[in-house]
Amino acid sequence: MSITTRTGDGGQTSLPGGSRVSKADPRVEAYGTIDELISSMGLARALCTDPALGDLTKSIQRELFRVSSAVAASPDTRKPAVEVTPEMIQRLTDEIDRLEATENMLADWSLPGGDVASAAFDVARTVCRRAERHTVRLIEMDSSIESGVVVYLNRLSDLLWLCGRRIELEKKVDSRLREDGNQKSGRWTRAW
Fold first, then answer.
1. CB 92: neighbour CB atoms within 10 A?
2. Distance CA 98, CA 76 (A)
3. How far apart are CA 80 and CA 104, in angstroms?
4. Which residues are 21's β-sheet partners?
5. Measured by CB atoms within 10 angstroms of the end CB, which terminus of the chain is less buried, N or C?
6. Cα-flanking dihedrals φ and ψ of residue 13, to 5°?
7. Does pLDDT of 8 surpass 90?
8. Are 148 and 83 in contact (CB under 8 A)?
9. Are residues 90 and 51 in contact, defined by beta-carbon separation less than 8 angstroms?
């Protein structure tokens, strides 16, 4: 058995359940971007020296395979649908709440690149947002996609942003975009 099957040489791939589609199919684009997100998070985790953030990232990477399966399954598959559960979404929300409560956490626009690990989390966040856009586009074409996928990706992008800010806070990196230090009123600026 080889990793090279040659079945994709013509520009098609198999979805779970066996149906063949173009590699340019919106479903493939959506779950392929989630695959890219998993790898981007892997780079962020490899660069992160905070064991708790590393463990959190690794567990989310594993969970993203489930999210990817929920997107990849075609409507005509006989396999049971993979669900993105409310518990999965709540776990992300709880982590967001925990990180937001961190004293002196940046609550305004940030400028990525002050630290290599935080920058990797920022790249993962942007890949997550792209995965979310592709998934929304797919849902608009095919309502069989489980709606929890978009909610999960939306929460995850917020969490990834906070992971980057947490790293910068620990390393005393100033990533504020606004040099004058002015921040809009309220705890969190809707920066994205």
1. 22
2. 40
3. 45
4. 13
5. N
6. -140, 165
7. no
8. yes
9. no
d(CA 22, CA 14): 9
129-147 in b/e form (b: 16+ CB < 10 A) is bbbbebbbebbeeeeebbe
Looking at residue 41, its amino acid is M
Q: Which amino acid is at 33?
A: T
- Predicted pLDDT of residue 64: 97
Output the CA–CA distances (angstroms, integers) from residue 124 to 57, 107, 162, 191, in the order listed.
11, 19, 12, 17
CB 72 within 8 A of CB 15: yes
pLDDT, tens digit, 9 for 90 and up, residues 25-57 = 888 888 899 999 999 999 999 999 999 999 999
* Strand segments (E) across the chain: 12-14, 20-22
Q: What is the pLDDT of residues 60-96, one digit of tens each?
A: 999 999 999 888 887 776 676 788 999 999 999 999 9
Query: Two tokens at 116?
Result: 């290599």
Q: How many residues does the chain have?
A: 192
